[in-house]
C-alpha cells in the first residue's frame, strides 16, 4: 500500500544533506551511485522546497525502505486529505524525468533496513516547521506554457479554463473522464491511438485549492487544423473571454462578439454558442434573476440603513402552502437625498413609465423634476407589473404620502388612461386644489401628428401650445383652422388649460436653455433677466393704482416692423402677475414687470423666485448619497423570502420590440428650414401650402 499526501517532485525532495543540515546531526552521507546530493546544492533544494510548499511521502508497510529511496516529510496535519492508490496506480504515476526508483527487498520479501541517517531525524524539529503561504499559479500561467504536476488553481473553473486554453493553443482535443465537485480528470481524445496525455486534479483540504495530482504530457498526437471549430471552445470559456466586453456594454450584438472570438482564437463558432456565452457572461456580471429577487429586500434594507430618510414600500402576495415565502408584485423607493432635495426645487413633477427587459416582464415608473439649473432631478421609482389605473394610483399615493407632502404641485404626464383615472380620484391626492395635472406638450403634439401626419400642422400646434399670451395662441389656432378645420376639432376634445401655457395659470414652466451655476442666481435666470431688461427700456409705464400696485405697460415698436408693438399689458405687483403670463410661468420677471420696477425704483432681483438662487440650487444636492458596503456586510432584514411572479416570465424566442418608435424618436435637424412666405419652419416657398391660394399666412408673432 502506498500513501500519498503530497505530489512528488524529485527536484524538491529532501536529500540526506538537507536532513543533516537542519537537524544538526553529524551524519555521514554515503556515496551510493547517483543518489548522493552535493552539499552546495542544499540551499537551492531548501528554497525550492519552500516554494513548492511540501512534497510526497512514499512509505511502505514498514517505515524501513531502501537507502537509495528519498523520504520527504510533508508540511501537513492530521486533518489533511489522504488518497490511496494500489501498486499498479503508483507505477503509472511516475511521469518525472527520472525513472521510478525500484524497491529493494530480500529474497524472502523482507525490506532491507534503511540507512542510519533516517534513524537520527529530529521529528519534533521537522513537525515544528511551517510552509510559506500557498498561492495559486493562475496569474503566472499562460496557454503557451506546459502544465505541471503540483500546480494549484483557486477553483475548478480556473483549472478547466487553463486546461481548455492549453488545448486550444496546441490544437489538441480532450475528453472528460471524471468530473465531480471535488475532482476533475481529462485525457487526450486520441488515447486509443497511443497518446498518453492525461491530467487529474482534486481539491485539497489543506489549502482548499484544486491541485494537479497526476499529469502525463505533452501530447504525442497531431491534429490537422482543418476544422472551423474546437471542442474545448465551449460557451463557458467564451463567456469568460467576453465578460469584460459585456460588462462595458451589455447591448453588444452577437455578431460583434462572434467577430471578437474569431479574431482571438481563429475559429468560426456557431451563433447559438455565442448567444449562450453572452447569457452566461450576463449572469457572471449581473447575477442570476431569481437570486436577484431574493437579494432585493436585503439591498433595500441596507439602502435605508446607510441612507437615512430613504422610503421603501412593498406589495407582495403570500405563497400558498409555503410559510415565510412571498411573491413579488410591486416595490416603490425614493432616496433620502432626493426627498430632502425636493424641498428646494420648483414644485413641478414629471411622471412616466418604461418597459423592463429581461427574463421577467414589468414596468419601471419614474418621477423626476427640474432643478433651478435645468438639470433632471430623480425623485422616486417603482417597479410594477404593468401600467394601469391600479398601479399608477398605488405609485402616486406612495409619492404623495412619502415624498411630496406640500400643496400646489404641478404634475406633468402623457395622456395615459391609467394616469388620468388615478389623478381624477380624490383619494389618490393629486386632484385640485392639492395639485394641478397638466399634459406634456410634446406628447400631445406627437399624438396630433399621428392623426394628421402633416409637419406644417404639427409645427403650428406646437407653437400654439408654447405661447404665453392668449391672443398669440388664438392667432396660431386660427391658422390651423384655415389650413385644416378638422385639426382644430381634434384639440377641442382636450382641456385647453392642460396642454397650453397661455391658459396654464402659471403652473407649468418650460426651461429649455442650457444653464450653468451663477454666483447668486443661476446663469439661466441671469440671461433671461438681461434679455427682458433690454426690452424694458422701450416700454411706457402708466400707474393705475399705486396702493394696489396695478400698472399698464405699452410695449415699444418691434424693430423694423412698424406694425408690431404698442400692445398693452397689465401688471399687478401685489399679486405677482402679468397679463403676458411669462412671469407666472418662469418665475423670472418679464420685460413689462422690469419696466414697472424701474419706474417705481424697486429692486427687480427680489421678484425672481428663490428656486433660481444659487443657494437654493446647492441645497438640492446638499444631502449626500452614502456608499453601500460589500454584500457580505448586509444584515438580513425581517422580510420573507421573495420570489418572482412566474406569470410575468417572458416567452421564449426573440422578443418583439415593445418600444414602438414614432416621430418623437427622430432627431430634429440642427438647421431648420423656414418658409419665406408664411415664416413657418419645416418647408420652403416651393412647397408652401399657402402658395396655391395666392396669399401668405400671417408671419410668426414676435414677443411683445
UniProtKB/TrEMBL annotation:
PROSITE patterns: ZF_SWIM. Coiled coil: none annotated. It comes from the Eukaryota. GO terms for molecular function: zinc ion binding. Residues 569-601 form the SWIM-type domain. Keywords: Metal-binding, Zinc, Zinc-finger. This is SWIM-type domain-containing protein. InterPro entries: MULE_transposase_dom, Transposase_MuDR, Znf_PMZ, Znf_SWIM.
Amino acid at each position: 500500500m502506498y500513501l500519498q499526501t503530497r505530489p512528488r517532485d524529485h527536484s524538491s525532495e529532501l536529500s540526506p544533506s538537507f536532513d543533516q543540515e537542519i537537524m544538526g546531526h553529524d551524519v555521514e552521507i554515503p556515496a551510493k551511485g547517483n543518489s548522493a546530493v552535493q552539499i552546495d546544492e542544499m540551499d537551492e533544494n531548501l528554497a525550492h522546497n519552500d516554494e513548492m510548499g511540501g512534497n510526497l511521502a512514499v512509505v511502505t508497510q514498514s517505515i524501513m525502505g531502501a537507502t537509495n529511496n528519498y523520504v520527504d516529510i510533508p508540511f501537513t496535519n492530521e486533518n489533511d486529505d489522504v488518497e490511496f492508490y494500489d501498486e499498479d496506480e503508483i507505477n503509472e504515476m511516475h511521469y518525472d524525468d527520472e525513472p521510478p526508483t525500484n524497491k529493494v527487498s530480500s529474497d524472502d520479501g523482507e525490506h532491507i533496513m534503511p540507512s542510519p541517517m533516517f534513524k537520527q531525524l529530529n521529528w519534533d524539529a521537522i513537525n515544528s516547521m511551517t510552509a510559506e503561504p500557498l498561492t495559486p499559479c493562475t496569474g503566472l500561467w499562460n496557454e503557451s506554457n506546459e502544465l505541471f504536476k503540483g500546480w494549484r488553481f483557486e477553483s475548478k473553473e480556473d483549472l478547466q479554463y487553463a486546461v481548455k486554453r492549453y488545448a486550444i493553443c496546441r490544437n489538441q482535443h480532450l475528453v472528460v473522464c471524471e468530473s465531480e465537485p471535488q475532482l476533475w480528470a481529462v485525457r487526450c481524445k486520441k488515447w486509443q491511438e497511443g497518446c498518453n496525455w492525461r491530467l487529474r486534479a482534486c481539491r485539497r483540504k489543506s489549502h482548499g485549492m484544486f491541485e494537479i495530482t497526476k499529469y502525463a504530457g505533452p501530447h504525442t498526437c497531431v491534429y490537422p487544423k482543418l476544422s472551423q471549430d474546437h471542442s474545448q471552445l465551449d460557451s463557458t470559456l467564451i463567456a469568460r473571454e467576453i465578460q469584460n466586453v459585456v460588462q462595458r456594454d451589455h447591448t453588444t450584438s452577437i455578431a460583434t462578439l462572434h467577430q471578437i472570438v474569431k479574431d482571438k482564437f481563429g475559429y468560426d463558432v456557431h451563433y447559438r454558442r455565442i448567444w449562450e456565452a453572452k447569457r452566461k457572461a450576463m449572469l457572471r456580471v449581473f447575477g442570476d434573476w431569481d437570486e436577484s429577487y431574493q437579494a432585493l429586500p436585503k439591498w433595500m434594507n441596507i439602502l435605508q440603513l446607510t441612507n437615512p430618510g430613504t422610503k421603501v414600500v412593498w406589495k407582495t402576495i403570500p405563497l400558498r402552502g409555503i410559510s415565510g415565502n412571498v411573491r413579488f408584485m410591486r416595490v416603490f423607493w425614493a432616496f433620502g437625498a432626493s426627498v430632502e432635495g425636493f424641498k428646494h426645487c420648483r414644485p413641478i413633477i414629471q411622471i412616466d413609465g418604461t418597459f423592463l427587459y429581461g427574463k421577467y416582464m414589468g414596468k419601471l415608473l419614474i418621477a423626476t423634476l427640474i432643478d433651478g439649473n435645468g438639470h433632471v432631478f430623480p425623485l422616486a421609482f417603482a417597479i410594477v407589473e404593468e401600467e394601469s389605473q391600479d398601479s399608477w394610483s398605488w405609485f402616486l399615493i406612495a409619492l404623495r404620502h412619502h415624498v411630496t407632502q406640500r400643496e400646489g404641485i404641478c404634475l406633468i404626464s402623457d395622456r395615459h388612461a391609467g394616469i388620468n383615472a388615478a389623478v381624477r380620484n380624490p383619494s389618490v391626492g393629486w386632484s385640485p386644489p392639492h395639485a394641478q395635472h397638466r399634459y406634456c406638450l410634446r406628447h400631445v403634439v406627437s399624438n396630433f401628428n399621428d392623426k394628421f401626419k402633416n409637419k406644417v400642422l404639427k409645427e403650428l400646434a406646437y407653437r400654439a401650445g408654447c405661447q404665453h399670451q392668449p391672443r398669440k395662441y388664438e392667432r396660431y389656432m386660427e391658422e390651423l383652422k384655415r389650413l385644416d378645420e378638422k385639426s382644430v376639432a381634434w384639440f377641442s376634445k382636450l382641456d385647453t388649460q392642460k396642454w397650453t401655457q397661455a391658459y396654464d395659470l402659471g403652473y407649468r414652466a418650460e426651461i429649455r436653455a442650457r444653464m450653468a451655476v451663477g454666483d447668486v442666481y443661476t446663469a439661466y435666470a441671469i440671461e433671461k433677466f438681461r434679455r427682458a431688461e433690454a426690452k424694458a427700456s422701450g416700454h411706457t409705464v402708466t400707474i393705475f393704482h399705486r396702493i394696489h400696485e396695478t400698472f399698464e405697460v405699452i410695449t415699444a415698436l418691434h424693430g423694423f416692423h412698424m406694425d408690431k408693438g404698442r400692445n398693452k399689458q397689465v401688471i399687478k405687483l401685489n399679486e405677482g402677475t402679468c397679463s403676458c403670463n411669462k412671469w407666472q410661468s418662469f418665475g423670472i420677471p418679464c420685460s413689462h414687470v422690469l419696466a414697472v420696477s424701474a419706474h417705481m425704483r424697486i429692486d427687480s432681483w427680489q421678484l425672481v423666485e428663490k428656486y433660481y438662487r444659487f443657494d437654493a440650487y446647492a441645497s438640492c444636492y446638499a444631502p449626500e448619497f452614502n456608499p453601500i458596503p460589500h454584500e457580505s456586510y448586509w444584515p438580513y432584514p425581517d422580510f420573507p423570502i421573495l420570489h418572482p411572479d412566474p406569470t410575468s416570465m417572458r416567452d421564449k424566442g426573440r422578443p418583439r420590440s415593445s418600444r414602438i418608435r414614432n416621430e418623437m424618436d427622430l432627431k430634429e435637424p440642427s438647421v431648420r428650414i423656414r418658409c419665406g412666405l408664411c415664416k413657418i419652419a419645416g418647408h420652403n416657398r416651393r412647397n408652401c401650402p399657402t402658395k396655391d391660394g395666392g396669399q401668405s399666412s400671417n408671419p410668426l408673432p414676435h414677443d411683445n
